[in-house]
Specification:
Elements (H helix, E strand, L loop, with lengths): L2 H9 E6 L2 E12 L6 E7 L4 E6 L2 E6 L4 E7 L4 E7 L4 E6 L4 E6 L5 E6 L4 E7 L4 E6 L4 E6 L5 E6 L4 E7 L4 E6 L4 E6 L4 E7 L9 E4 L4 E5 L4 E5 L4 E4 L7 E7 L4 E6 L3 E9 L2 E9 L6 E5 L4 E6 L8 E7 L12
Antiparallel strand pairs: 1-2, 2-29, 3-4, 4-5, 5-6, 7-8, 8-9, 9-10, 11-12, 12-13, 13-14, 15-16, 16-17, 17-18, 19-20, 20-21, 21-22, 23-24, 24-25, 25-26, 27-28, 28-29
């Protein structure tokens, strides 16, 4: 096999479907200057920007141009960042400060610091209550902040080392991964109460999470497994294989594809055939350390964070589909 073919295979992930093929091609790599680690990525759909938690800051990128626009500085131990369009405010977790930082969406200047539990990690906007929630990794708690008044409304005791969370809007519920205890905590968003814990066995150590709002499913990125949880029953209904070192999961609702980005240099693509059937549809070769990702639902592009701990090589890899997926049974008639 010559070098040209090897290069093509590294940049394209072909997903074989019944009667059709979907391919993901690497469009570009966007370097993020500065040393230190990186964590979650998120898309600001309104401003069409990409936010990347990067060491002591949050890098803000222009998605269309693939360029860094600026930074939210002073986010010591940055883990996650989001922009809430409803209130035109940005929010970022500072793990080392034990703070949720509020920043101006235009100037990117921090305007307020709000105390949280120990080591806030993932951050989520909960539309049901119009609150911003921080998943406090070391504290095992969730801090709930009113997105408008910026007042702390509640602290939820969950237990365990908390990772990513998702809102299931249809039922006003929020679900969060407890990595060390290998369960998903189910929380009533309005009462701020933990109502149930769903064990993920035979999968373990959940980190990333995505939600299929239509089919009522959670996708939890675990140790070499993607645990698919039926929300109605709280049961694990499938555990397709993924790579090692998963730290994020993204879901393309229109294409019915789940992406599990893993530190071993692969992103596994799992296809939702129906509410009970799931198949590994292919893998994208990314880069060693490429463990976090996010999806732009508008363009279907996948953004993967990559880098080597201790080196100045943090970058965002951008992948786009060359063709849209079709159901395994063929196109709808």
């Amino acid at each position: 096999m010559n070098g040209q073919w090897i290069s093509a295979l590294l940049c394209v992930a072909s997903v074989t479907l019944s009667g059709d093929t979907v391919s993901y091609k690497k469009d570009k790599e966007i370097p993020l200057p500065g040393s230190g680690g990186f964590d979650y990525l998120s898309v600001d759909a309104t401003g069409h920007r990409l936010l990347v938690a990067h060491s002591g800051a949050v890098d803000v990128l222009d998605i269309d141009k693939g360029e860094v626009l600026g930074k939210v500085e002073g986010v010591d131990g940055a883990h996650g960042a989001i922009i809430v369009a409803d209130v035109d405010k940005g929010f970022a977790t500072s793990g080392k400060k034990n703070m949720l930082l509020v920043f101006d969406t235009k100037t990117l200047k921090v305007t307020k610091e709000i105390p949280t539990g120990a080591n806030p990690d993932a951050v989520l906007y909960v539309a049901t209550t119009k609150e911003v929630w921080t998943m406090n990794h070391s504290g095992g708690t969730i801090t709930c902040v009113d997105a408008s008044s910026l007042e702390v409304k509640a602290t939820i005791e969950v237990g365990g080392k908390l990772e990513f969370a998702q809102e299931y809007a249809a039922k006003g519920m929020v679900f969060v991964n407890a990595e060390d205890k290998s369960f998903v905590g189910a929380i009533d968003a309005k009462t701020h109460k933990l109502t149930a814990s769903y064990p993920l066995a035979p999968a373990a150590e959940p980190t990333g999470m995505a939600c299929d709002q239509k089919n009522g499913l959670l996708f939890c990125g675990c140790d070499k497994k993607l645990a698919v949880v039926d929300i109605a029953s709280g049961k694990v209904i499938a555990t397709p294989d993924i790579g090692g070192g998963c730290d994020a999961v993204a879901f393309d609702a229109e294409l019915g594809l789940v992406f599990a980005s893993c530190g071993d240099g692969t992103t596994t693509i799992v296809r939702v055939v129906d509410a009970k059937t799931f198949e590994v549809a292919g893998k994208i070769d990314t880069a060693p350390g490429a463990r976090t990702c996010t999806l732009d639902a508008k363009t279907h592009k996948l953004y993967v964070g990559a880098g080597t701990r201790g080196k100045d090589d943090v970058r965002v890899l951008v992948f786009s589909p060359e063709a849209k997926a079709v159901p395994a049974s063929g196109p709808k008639k």
